[in-house]
User: Fold this.
Amino acid sequence: MERRTRKKRANLIAQGGIMAVAILFANACILLRQIPLTVMWGDEGNSIYASAYGIFSLAWLISSYGLPIAMSGLLKPRLQQRQYKNAAKVMQTVFLYGTITSAVLGAGLFFGSSWLTEYVMQERLSALPLQILSVALIFTAWNGVLRGFFIGNGAGFPVVISVILEQVVTLAVGIPMARILEERGAKIGALLQNASFSQSFAVQGFCCGILAGTVIAFVPLLFIYLTSHSYYKKKNGKDSGRQREGLIQIISVFFICLLPIVIYGIFTKGNLFVEQIFFRQCMKDNLSSGAVAKQWGIYYGKYKIFTSIPVVLTIAMGSTLRDRVYSLARKRDTHHMQNIIQNVFQASMAVAIPLSVMVGVLSGLILDTFFPGQDTETAAVLLMAGFVTSVFFSAAYLLAEVLWGMKYHITILLCGISAFTIHVGILYVMLEMLHFDILGVLYADILYSFLLLFLIGSAVWRKCRLSLRVLRSTVSFVIASGAMTVALLLLNRLLAKALTGAVLLPALILTGFVVYFIVLLLLRGVREKTLYLIPGGKLICTLAKGARLL
Assistant:
């Protein structure tokens, strides 16, 4: 009983186990590495990188994104029923799909890089970085296949090693290579009288790091798979012999499982790529190429980075929600399922809402601290207006996990496709008819995040019949965040001249969270059980009890 109580009090990331930590580490590295890169190559470099990486990301979504989930989802039930030969057919099918699609798309990106970057993305200098990334595409597919294989077999440790190794190698190789090639590009740019060559060569260097990371991440997975191959071969000899599935049946089941994941990935992760194409195409006749590149570089490398931090943290906190909901839905334990959904949602929003508000309130200080000497005025305006997207996307992605767990695939796809279609229409109106610049993309992004939350939230509310306590607690989070905003503005004005940004920013962040949780506890807006689910919640509870606030 004591052990069970301690387990319940563990925070959500700890409950997710080592896989949740690995997911958080990988997403945080992908996100935060953009800060030193932006310092190195500036907004124009961000534009070049965003063009190449955006095309690569779309190809990755089609060829590799859904492979680990689809693979593990198809393997687990077959292994549990000792259908080892059927499981081997699943492995072969997924491997062939990943190899063929990644090879075809990679070849298309490599040989069509000049056309794609010049005519679709309006960024000619991203052609060579795209060619480097196209080679990495096949390794991302093979990584996805083997990661899905190990997850399906219940062996998460090789996957964690691979994920961490990929990010470490990418940073260890990419950043030094970017600096080396930046100097070479500066010399070539001086000869050709084009200063942008230094940024293009720097992007090429970091893309080499991404390629190295995907290749090195594949090595331990392949080694462990080959060394354990005899073990899995023996299992095939113990096949139950029941329900032999034909290849056509395996392929059909695979695509039925894969397509919803790919479509979901496109309208959640691919919306930035669509925004980029619309912006570049609509602005090419209204702004100079340099202004277009700079505005998109600011949006991609500064605005999107900081507004995505609460989203990444929320995804990590809710990483196990899908499996828990699925397990309880199979048992028809509706009451327990509702409690878990409400507790996880409240704990996630208790962190995401103040963190998002803090990004908006301290936008100027944050940008000046991380990007000294660069133009931060436009990015500060974007963050002050668009910080709400962090809350909307965090809540939408978290609630989407509930629908996935309850197997309402069609519902979530309809919600996502509807919001995405309206988003594209709004984006067209903002850019082509109203002639907004990057602010048009911002307004469309805000509306898209709200629509996605509204549609998915409404579906979850209908399917689960959640308590109104969820809405009441959200109001408390907003009020406490308002009090925190007032405190931050006053302290920033009083201390701005006395302290440097490197000292002032962490002091304000710490003070802001202290004020937020004090007001939240005074409002009785959060329960002790919910606080224990938050990272650092045990310390918060101890301090609150000592101050007699809990």
The chain has 24 helices and no strands. The radius of gyration is 24 Å.
